[in-house]
Amino acid sequence: MKKILLIFALLFSGISFAQIQTPQPSPYGKIEQVVGLTDVTVEYSRPGMRDREIFGGLVPFGEMWRTGANENTKITFSDPVEINGKKLDAGTYAIFTVPSKNQWDVIFYSDVQNWGLPQKWDDSKVALKTTAKVINMPLNMETFTILIDELKNDSAVLNFLWENTIASLEFKVPTEEKAMTSIKQIMNGPTGSDYYAAANYYYETGKDLKQALNWINKAVKENDAFYILRKKALIQAELGMKKKAIETARLSLEGAKKANNKDYVKMNEASIKEWGS
Fold first, then answer.
1. Cα 231 to the chain's mean position, in Å?
2. What does the pLDDT look like over 235-258, one tens digit per residue?
3. Containing H/E element for 6?
């Protein structure tokens, strides 16, 4: 009898039972976005309207909301950020909100290991509390959506969209501080690409263009690629050196034609025409 039972046990141990797969009512979503030099990640579950009234109904006004479904909606900043004049350290936070018609309270909570709202709220875990602006959309958004939009070198906007509502929260990132620190460190022993990157940053942000020209000249000495020459021409033109800018643009144009880069050919031809007029 023991042998028979052992045989059955061995037989059934080799059988794998399939698990039924069905779609989740609130599917998982993830956003990864670089803002300036800061990595921002959002992980959340996305419930649908499904013919329900959302704000003022399913999500009551004036009450705390998990800001999604299932586990905590989480946001991670690789650097400290600033939100409405308040500092928030780098790290991962749960996002809780208190929606109302005209604005939302937004809470960044340091404990992210919750299913929905924390069973016991702890004010000491509130890393930052602020408000988000609310506007109405002309059409309904069926699925709850979080977007990182309006990207700039030093800021972006965190948007929460559902039903006919958008709640928007701007945050600022330390791009200037990180970029300048990097430039100062690298300039102790820079390569041609370092000179190009520094010159490009100074040009794009409207800093000392004479210094940018000095750096781009050093970059060109190591690598006279058409895209580097193009940047030099733009800096020269911005400094009012139109004749020299045209000369540099012609060199860039020649290199772009050899590389069969139609975009740079078109840009250089347009610039030469503009600066020569």
1. 26
2. 999 999 999 999 999 999 999 999
3. helix 2-13
